[in-house]
Amino acid sequence: MSSPKKRGRPKGSLGKKKKAELSRQATLVSLRSSRTHTLTPSMEEEYEDVAEDTLSQFTDTLDAAIEKITKELKKIRKIRSDFSRAIAEQKKAIEAVKAENVQLKEKCHALETRISGLEKSREEHSALHNKHERFSRRNNIRIVGFPTGPQENCLQIAKDVIAKVGISDCHLERAHRDGRKIIGRDSHILVKLTYFQDKVFVMKNARQALTNEGYYIVEDLTKIDLAEKRRHSRQVSELFQQGVRLRFSGGLWRDGRGKPYAFT
């Protein structure tokens, strides 16, 4: 009988690990052999020292760079955190300002409404006051430009002037100088007539009757009415030259029919 076959690797064969190890050793031997041909033993030692120093310096430099970068990153994180906190605070402050602004707008709107109402009320009261003052001056006239004399009797002067206009027995309540004293100018003589009809007659005839005198008669107007009269005085003069006759009554310039004149 034939003997049984033995199992396992053939004699003289090598495993994969063994082959790899032998290959690595052969490569190292080859490298050493090639380096032996190019470097002397002293140069080889120096080369190894330089390589070790270079590696050590590179490692130190790399560590320092890493440490520096780490510090910078920490700073950046802190700055970012502070910036985010500041933005959050600013956002909160802006929201507070917006809310306050809304409240202020509401208050301003309420104040504007109130002021508008007060202004309207003031204008109404001013117009009403002017109307009452105009009524209180209804029977008044002013004699303008009459020379001031020593110990003068204004009541007698007023009667004499009105007599020249055409009313010899005119009834007067009072007469006196009015307004501040100005050097070189005589104060007006303010006269209050008892009857309104006498005042109307005087105002109609005074211009013609006193043409050759150095004084004249005007109506006693309120400040508001006087300002309104003066505002259009130039236009009234121009219209007079064109044949348009206007008269001032009730705080307005009026035409011949008594209607307010519309100035252009």
UniProtKB/TrEMBL annotation:
Coiled-coil features, chain-numbered ranges: 87-121
Highest taxon above the source species: Eukaryota
Bias type Basic residues, positions: 1-19
Gene3D superfamilies, alphabetized: L1 transposable element, RRM domain
The entry's keywords: Coiled coil
Chain positions covered by the region annotation Disordered: 1-27
Keyword Coiled coil part of the UniProt annotation: yes
The name this protein goes by in its record: Uncharacterized protein
Source species: Holothuria leucospilota
Lineage, top ranks: Eukaryota, Metazoa, Echinodermata, Eleutherozoa, Echinozoa
